[in-house]
């Protein structure tokens, strides 16, 4: 496994070792011991989630103000533009973002720690997205930052098209008005 830094030091891209030939491929998608050794992350994962999204679906920017979730995310079908935003007011990177492409072809994963908002845009006709979380879903603690907050300035690769949004994402708050972490 290779660890690739992003614009935010705590957010990591994890590139697995893939063994392939004309029959197909094999790779170890998760090994707790190796993950901890390579990343230094000691949190436990308690829940796995799987979503499918159509082209131009934008999910996010989501976080839980309590029961903050770290997320280990990957794409098993298709391609997404994935984003993490630092929501820790005490961080020198507060309000800054990192964006990167995850695909079923590159098989990379991203570690998004607790204290960060997360979102993604589906670039392919559809995408299936898997993620492990370090805490359980707590709907009463769920919050959303609006995807196009100019104070964050995410360069979503929309190519002039409007994203498809859930009602909760349309109603997301600007970072300056949102509940964030200390």
Give a topology summary.
Blueprint: E1 2-5, E2 12-15, E3 19-21, E4 24-26, H1 32-39, E5 47-54, E6 58-64, E7 71-77, E8 79-86, E9 97-103, E10 109-112, E11 116-122, E12 126-133, E13 142-144, H2 167-170
Antiparallel strand pairs: 1-2, 2-10, 3-4, 5-12, 6-11, 6-13, 7-10, 7-12, 8-9, 8-11
Report on the structure:
There is one protein chain. With 182 residues, the chain is mainly beta. It has a single domain (43-177), classed as Sandwich (Jelly Rolls), CATH 2.60.120.10. Helices cover 7% and strands 40% of the residues. It is built from two helices and 13 strands. The chain has helices at 32-39, 167-170, and strands spanning 2-5, 12-15, 19-21, 24-26, 47-54, 58-64, 71-77, 79-86, 97-103, 109-112, 116-122, 126-133, 142-144. The strands form three sheets. It has a six-stranded antiparallel sheet with strand order 1-2-10-7-12-5, with no helix packed on it. A five-stranded antiparallel sheet has the order 9-8-11-6-13, with no helix packed on it. The radius of gyration is 16 Å and the shape is globular. The termini are far apart.
